[in-house]
Amino acid sequence: MTLIYADDEELGKRVAAAVRGQTLVVRKWMAIQSANTRAHTCVIALDSLGNWNLAERLGQLRRWTAHAPIVLVLPMTEEHATALAAVVVEGVIWTHRLSESDYVAERLGAQKSLQARFAAAVLASERIPNADRELIARLIQLDPPPRTCEAAARMLGTSPSTLCRKVSTAFGNATGFSTGRLLETVRLLWCCDPLRRHHKPQTLARLLGRSSRSLFRIAQDLTGTTLGELRRAPERALYDLLGRLNIVT
User: Fold this and answer.
1) Residue 24 Cα to chain centre, angstroms
2) Quick one: CA dihedral 217, 225, 175, 125, positive or negative?
3) Would you say residue 193 has pLDDT above 90?
4) Residue 187, pLDDT score
5) Beta bridge partners of 6
6) How far is CA 166 from each of CA 5, 6, 83, 114, rounded to the nearest angstrom?
7) What domains can be seen in the chain, in order of their start residue?
8) Which of 75-79, 105-109, 126-130 has the highest mean pLDDT?
9) Which tops the pLDDT comparison, 233 or 83?
10) What is the DSSP letter of 7?
11) pLDDT level of residue 160 (50, 70, 90 thresholds)
């Protein structure tokens, strides 16, 4: 079931129409707490932030919903990007186009994100030790990718040293990949994913806590291709990466 909170009745109806399967729409925030136990995905739809304390509300929602994905439907503005960039809550996707419900398809399994496909390739790879595959796959799927190795380790419930050691064991000996380099790679896939094709690089960079110039540099360094070219052909970013890591899909 998809649980939908909307601050406007018509907006709630439009979101429900875009979501496949069973939905429950609520308009009172505290109603989420009693309804969330059956929810596989939570959608928060707002016309604007108004007096909302975004960090407080999303933090509260994450406590209520455990690990259920949270989709925030909110108009794409610089003000909203600035507010969301200051929020550190795992598993939140921001979208603004109800007419193209890619966020729903991605979360309900109709299409796999580039990160999910990368993680699946890691889990299936025989060249990566079994003991390391699950943690690395979880790291790859953090959404949005964390800003630092330390933040990634906290989100995964491990220490930075353990995380770095496992990434080094899996990739470092053969390719020179560090945890920082792996996170840069995941950031690139996150930016190139079709799910975010309507978002400007500047907005994506702000959400990642990076400059747009750094995203352009990452694309060039990792693939020898511009960010714009990779976003037009996102499959290229994924397959180039898997080829460099000698991971067969």
Assistant:
1) 24
2) positive
3) no
4) 92
5) 45
6) 39, 42, 34, 22
7) 2-108 (3.40.50.2300), 114-244 (1.10.10)
8) 126-130
9) 233
10) S
11) very high
